[in-house]
Design a protein that fits this description.
alpha+beta, 4-stranded antiparallel beta sheet, 29% helix, globular
């Protein structure tokens, strides 16, 4: 069953650029994983150093046993303590429904 992780980050202001660079590299790599569904990174409109990421994968077990151990995540995980003002807030959710605007195709 697909699983979505909602992760909130409070970034040290001086580390904002490094945070976005390292997270961007992880997002760029994970989009090629066969069990990846989607990820969306948000910024708090009130605080430029507060972010929320949600990412959806095919299964929690596969994320814990395979994805979290991918070598492309190593630099990200090692840097997190210096990047964040406090620990991440991580929640796990099960998707029930997804709605999107359909793009119009020239048929």
């Amino acid at each position: 069953m697909p699983v979505t992780y909602v992760i909130k980050f409070d970034v040290v202001p001086e580390q904002r650029t490094n945070f976005l660079r390292l997270l961007g590299a992880v997002l760029d790599a994970m989009r090629h994983e066969p069990t990846f569904h989607q990820a969306v990174l948000h910024r708090d409109p009130v605080s430029e150093n507060r972010f929320m990421l949600y990412e959806t994968w095919e299964s929690h077990d596969e994320v814990v046993n395979v994805q979290i151990k991918r070598s492309y995540r190593d630099a990200w995980h090692e840097a997190l303590p210096a990047l964040l003002a406090r620990d991440r807030d991580i929640e796990m959710w099960e998707p029930l429904r997804s709605d999107r605007v359909r793009s119009l195709s020239a048929d």
